[in-house]
Amino acid sequence: MGVHDEEILSRVATGDGHGENSSYFDGWKAYDNDPFHPIHNPNGVIQMGLAENQLCLDLMQEWIRKNPQASICTKEGASEFKAIANFQDYHGLPDFRKAIGRFMEKARGGRARFDPERIVMSGGATGAQETIAFCLANPGDAFLIPTPYYPAFDRDFGWRTGVQLIPVRCHSHDNFKITEAELAAAYRKARDSKIRVKGILITNPSNPLGTTMDRETLRTLASFANEERIHLVCDEIFSGTVFDGPEYVSVAEILQEDPSICDGDLIHIVYSLSKDLGVPGFRVGIIYSYNDAVVSCARRMSSFGLVSTQTQRLLASMLGDDDFTTDFLAETRRRLMHRHRAFTAGLEGVGIRCLQSNAGLFCWMSLKPLLKDATAEAEVELWRVIVDEVKLNISPGSSFHCAEPGWFRACFANMDEDTMETALRRIRTFVRRADGAAAPRPKTKKRWDATLRLSLPRRLEELTVLTPRLMSPRSPLVQAAT
Amino acid sequence: MRVIVPLQAVVQGRGGLVLGSLIPCALFYFFQLYIRRDRPSSSASNLPDLAAMPRSLSRGLLSPRGASGPARLSSRGASVARDDDNPDYVGLKRCAEDPYHHSSNPHGLMQLGLAENWLSLDMIRDWLVSNVKEPLLLDEEGELSIHGLATYQPYDGLMDLKMAVAEFMGQVMQGSVSFHPSQIVLTAGATPAVETLSFCLADPGNAFLVPSPYYPGWDRDIKWRTGIELITVPCRSTDNFSISIAALELAYNQAKKRGVKVCAVLVSNPSNPVGNLIDRETLYDLLDFVMEKNIHLISDEVFAGSTYGNDRFVSVAEVLDSENFDRRRVHIIYGLSKDLCVPGFRVGVIYSYNENVLAAASKLARFSSISTPTQCLLISILSNTKFITEYLKVNKERLRDMHALFVDGLKQLGIKCARSGGGFYCWADMSKFIQSYNEKGELKLWDKLLNEAKINMTPGSSCHCIEPGWFRCCFTTLTKQDIPIVMERIHRITESN
Predict the structure, then answer these.
(1) Tell me: the pLDDT tens digits for A172-201?
(2) What is the distance between the alpha carbons of residues B495 and B276, in angstroms, rounded to a whole number?
(3) Which of A205, A384, B169, B313 could form a disulfide bond with A359, CB atoms 3.0-4.6 angstroms apart?
(4) Which residues of A are tagged catalytic?
(5) CB atoms within 10 A of CB A59
(6) Pairing of strands B425-429, B229-234
(7) How many CB atoms lie within 10 A of CB B236?
(8) How far from chain centre, in Å, is Cα A126?
């Protein structure tokens, strides 16, 4: 960038808030330069860093084929074309909001009710997070966020808004649960540093852990928010991907069964169809707030990211079809469970342990035995080996601000079964090779140096990372030839 | 400075006038510090419109800090949520509740405040139905597949759509200039396009110079979240509201004196609300001005394809092509909502000659990307250049006819309109019908028109017009049969005034 441009462009434009300058980018570049294809490029990099749900697209395709009236471009649907093309009301199509509300209820087993009047659109979950931050916090304010967390939150929540995220450390010894002690400590520390904490941001089911939050933890968070008069923003984008017990508990349920636990004005849900329905390209982000002022404000700001009415119309029809949504949710869960079991079993076969999870499109695996030493640098080194030699783009825990080195997130729902098998084969080969190479060394792989501190060094904490978003539109899911 | 009476004793004693002035100043200063002691520590004063924030706040919004207060929004959130008295919102709401329909609701409210073009949508619909086969399901190979539509795509738009939009823009400008797809960032509407571009060009607290009257939406699109100030540069009816460089110069210097950094000049061409076109010479002058001041020029050309007058539309791109100006400071905002009549589909364009702006804007586009099925649909429509040429031609003819009828109708009521060459609006002078020649009088007339005549027009004050009595009326949502009804309703109000 020339000196001249530095003078005439903004800090947003010239700064690093977009988070794409980190070395983490190399994984994506590696994939883009050498993408896997079972026939044309069987030795390419397999994309396991993108949390995309491609398991049930065939169901959607079938529905669209059977329902031409849902599209305004067909003869059956053309009568609506003019009205739809012209409709730019930021309230959105009423049928669309109703259908979204209904779908959200279904994903929660009918245990929570959603009022369509509180549903606000935004430009994907990305836009939803940013809008909520604009509504709730001023520049310089902060939100507490349990680690490990989705890397793009730093950008989505804080880039243009000026809001900062303060990590609340969670540890593997209690399965990364959020403890009240850590939460309170982080809150106090922020207050002591004169940082105004405006709320807590959680993801439930969690990304990258793939676990659902238990009732007790949710209640603890809600009470804490209520007591300190701060907001609780719950990103429930993976709520429809819960494929196993324990049963999913949404914050909506907590509030419904016990309204006294927290002032409703403090509770907000962010949702999207990108994961549950597998349609990130549709750009459907939803803000659901129990606070009237936030609904009003977010709705006005939704002008910056309205969902195309053509898409609204299609989804209103599709999600309004009760039979379809029931079948779809059940089938998604079944396929995810199957895929998850196959993948984690494959990993276990070579001694790689995954955190026990019941949701999400990925698993959180521990590669600690393969680390040279228990440091963040060793983790990054291992990651580079996996990307460059094993040719798998998995995501290192440090990019998720994980407090302990050695954890990696691997996505398995954006590929077909054969590709998954290929990935597992490569992992097996790599682990066996690593084992073989390590033979002369003592059997125990865990080399916990007592004097070594496990906190992340400064420069790695500065790794503001690229979201697991796709740099190129290609993905390893190959269309079936038969 | 006048001496404050209670401090006469100080004045009459030692120290005299100096202490009599200093002490109240010092007291006031320390009082300010005291009441601001709890404000956040961020150095940038980027809470917009603090002066405009009404002080009587509802229960849910402001409270003393502490566990007992109600839930607080951010300052910008609170002011956005509360903006209910704005005539724009009031008018929109009333029209949505009681919309006119010639047969089912003939006494409903007629919406003349929203720029929608109903004149030519039927052409697009008809073409689609006969030409596009199941676009949602067809991928490049013509195979039925939702795959390409559902998965993540580049946030700043598919390259195919950028190419189609570049081609469309070239057609809109009637072949006088060609646009390059690599200089395009696509967003979900011109609204986020303007906001995203603003985020790239200025920091909170900086300002844009905006000749007025201007599009009321900019108060929302630019001021709300970026913290950028809009400095109004009034234009006069005496020269048909043309842009005056002298006025820009004056406003720039005044801002400088206040310590405010001006980063850009923002214009619309064809103008919203006036509808006039910026002539070539003024474009040259604007480019000279921004070069001299080392700032940007943003030209909002969303109505470029909706011209009907005798003057030819000249885009700033055309001037740049022909002359040796510094292009890196020029940016164009465009979209398909007006010229292609599809506001619901949300398609906006940032067209820039500055690669750093493009790089930043394409990353920012993640917050407002266009839905992929819609992109695919539009690629189909726009790729058929023969249809588009025909469509643009017919659309202009219909606009011309409707504009002529509307202006004529107003003329017969004694209402003159500013001379215009493009857009969906007439800029009508109703000043002789307002009782007091000020904003209050104008709003009273607006209220009468809304509640008695049941017509929603945009009052000039919403557009920051310095002369009271001007109203913006959209004529593209009307049919020929509606026009006499509109005129009759307006007449009811004007004859009683």
Answers:
(1) 999 999 999 999 999 999 999 999 999 999
(2) 29
(3) A205
(4) 150, 235, 237, 275
(5) 18
(6) unpaired
(7) 13
(8) 10
Beta-carbon-side half-sphere exposure of residue A127 (alpha carbons within 13 Å):
34
Tell me the two tokens of residue B304: 């470029």
**Alpha-carbon distance A359 to A343, whole Å?**
14
B309 burial class (0-12, 13-18, 19+ CB within 10 angstroms)? middle
What ipTM does the predicted assembly reach?
A: 0.88
Query: What is the Cα Rg of chain A in Å?
Result: 23
Task: Please name every residue paired with A232 in a beta bridge, in sequence order, or none if there are none.
Answer: A200, A267
CA–CA dist A418, A409 (Å, integer)? 20
What string of DSSP letters covers A138-180?
A: -TT-EEEEESS--TTHHHHHHTTT--EEEEE---GGGTT---H
Local confidence band at A76 (pLDDT 50, 70, 90 cut-offs): confident
Q: In Å, how far are B118, B127, B343 from B389, measured between CA atoms?
A: 18, 13, 20
Q: Identify any residues that bridge with A231 across adjacent strands, giving them in sequence order.
A: A199
3-state DSSP assignment of residue A408:
strand
Closest among B112, B117, B113, B116 to B395, alpha carbons compared: B117
pLDDT tens readout for residues A373-397: 999 999 999 999 999 999 999 999 9
Of B338, B307, B341, nearest to B128 by C-alpha is: B341
pLDDT of residue B55: 35
Torsion, Cα of A51, A55, A59, A65 (10° steps):
70
Q: What is the pLDDT of residue B159?
A: 96
- Beta strands B425-429; B296-300: pairing state: unpaired
The answer on pLDDT for A481 being more than 60 is no
**Measured between beta carbons, which residues in chain A are less than 8 angstroms from residue B369?**
123-124, 283
Chain A residue numbers with beta carbons less than 8 Å from the beta carbon of B360 are 9, 12-14, 18
DSSP code of residue B186 = E
Question: Is A396:A379 a contact under the CB 8 Å cutoff?
Answer: yes
B183 pLDDT tier (thresholds 50, 70, 90): very high
Nearest CA in chain B to A478: B147
Contact call for residues A149 and A203 (beta carbons, < 8 A): yes
Residue A86 to residue B328, Cβ atoms within 8 A: no
* pLDDT tens figures, A255-306: 999 999 999 999 999 999 999 999 999 999 999 999 999 999 999 999 999 9
Q: Where are the alpha helices (DSSP H) in B113-269?
A: 121-131, 147-150, 159-172, 190-201, 217-221, 223-226, 245-257
Token pair 């730019």 is found at: A88
The percentage of residues in chain B with a pLDDT greater than 90, rounded to a whole number, is 65
Residue B302 C-alpha, separation from nearest chain A C-alpha, in angstroms: 16
User: Is pLDDT of B386 > 60?
Assistant: yes
Residues of B in contact with A73 (CB under 8 A): 128-129, 132, 134-136, 377
Residue in chain A closest to B122 (alpha carbons) equals A82
Residue with tokens 């720039």: B252
- A79: its two tokens: 């009568």
B152: helix, strand or coil: coil
